[in-house]
Amino acid sequence: MDAIIPVDTPEVNDATPNETLRLRTDNITKSTPIDENVIKSGDSIEPVVKTTHSSSGFDVEHVYHAFVAALREPCSPVSPIGTQDYINGYRELIKFFDQLGRVFKFVKDDVVQKLDILQDFVDNDKNNPPHFDTIQRAIDYETEHDLIQTNSENFTRTLLRLHRALLFIEEFLRGLSERPSSDSTVTIATNAYDSTLYYHHGFLIRTTVKVGFRVLPSRKQLDDILFQGHKTDILEQYKTFIKTIKQIYDIVQAYYAEKKYLQLP
After folding, report:
1. Rounded Cα distance, 122 and 110, in Å
2. Which DSSP category does 9 fall into?
3. Sheet holding 10-11: strands in order across?
4. Staple partner for 212: which of 19, 61, 103, 241, CB 3.0–4.6 Å?
């Protein structure tokens, strides 16, 4: 399963296109060679789109239910955000990007690794009341026990990387439903990236991502992936889960800002 976007900044040492791109994650450095024979900015590449959908594929209804469940108090601007439902919703979103080909495979492990770290916190939380059942409670617990600076794989820092990526996903998916048909997938993805994750990435990641956007499926192909021939029936549900994702993002963003954690290294 491939992810669409990197959530950490790469180490850039004046690399040339033939050199190794080193992606810095929280505790490890991964080396991924850039193969010019695979992706060239001038190439015309037909996107590989999976048009068959199994029970493990992307499903708008599954994403909808996961994120709606995560928002414990939908009418509250400070609603608790359920950690397990947030993780479940994010994993469902990754299934959508998994349908877009293997262009961003080199970041897949990093995204999944961060979700697995959060899952471990939830699974190992045997406290009563629990410390990690909501995002706010988890951040409060790590703050009170001074775990954010002493543990490099803490919940708060790990979530921040996924939180930033969630805004890109929300803007991209919203653009697919709201932008005029004359706007290409490349344009929508680029605009979403430039207003979100662009500011957190170095030159090599920015360049690689934008080259990758060139092989994204067409708007019609993405409609097939998203709605599986039932767009009229589930379009409103699709729009609702996008609004819910943005509401969750805004709540988490405000909480990090309140704690002065938005710029955690």
Report:
1. 19
2. P
3. 10-11, 20-24, 29-33
4. 103
pLDDT digits (tens, 9 = 90+) for 204-256: 988 988 888 888 889 999 888 888 888 888 899 999 999 999 999 999 999 99
| The one-letter amino acid at 89 | G
The residue with tokens 């045997």 is: 126
Nearest CA to 21 among 29, 112, 210, 158?
A: 29
What gap in Å lies between CA 129 and CA 201, rounded to an integer? 38
- Reported as a single tens digit per residue, the pLDDT across 27-86 is 333 333 444 444 343 333 334 333 333 445 888 889 999 999 999 999 999 999 999 999
Sequential DSSP letters for 20-84: EEEEE-SS-EEEEE--TTT--TT------------TTS--HHHHHHHHHHHBSSTT-TT--BBHH
Contact status, residue 261 vs residue 160, Cβ threshold 8 Å: yes
The correct CATH number of 52-259 out of 3.30.70.250, 1.10.3520.10, 3.30.930.10, 3.55.30.10 is 1.10.3520.10
Instruction: Give the tokens for residue 158.
Output: 């790990």
Task: Report pLDDT digits (tens) over 172-211.
Answer: 999 999 999 899 999 999 999 999 989 988 999 889 888 8
| Domain extents in the chain | 52-259
